[in-house]
Amino acid sequence: MTVKGVTYILLFFVICFYSKVFCQETSEIRVEVNVYPCSDANSNDGSLEILKIEGGNPPYEIHWFGYKVNNLNKLRLEGLCKGRYVLIVEDKDKKIGKFEFKIDCKK
Prior knowledge:
Elements: E1 6-13, E2 28-36, E3 46-55, E4 61-66, E5 69-72, E6 76-80, E7 83-90, E8 96-103
Antiparallel strand pairs: 1-2, 2-3, 3-6, 4-5, 4-7, 7-8
């Protein structure tokens, strides 16, 4: 069964979380992510897939956080249940973008 995803393009201005690193808040990091919902409330067949990262200064480090997901650095997460997931993108200059995604159920 193919689940059609919804593409989210989010823009989040750079925030510096490091106390010892000087950061300029003049650039921005943008991500394009497909969000695939769960088939029902009791399943864990949702997924998130990063399609594109732009802005800032590549290369990027990525970190996902959420239910049963802790600091994973994959472009695609599968086997996800309904809930909220956070993506942290850090560029070469230690600039950070934070993005939040919500996986819902189709039923």
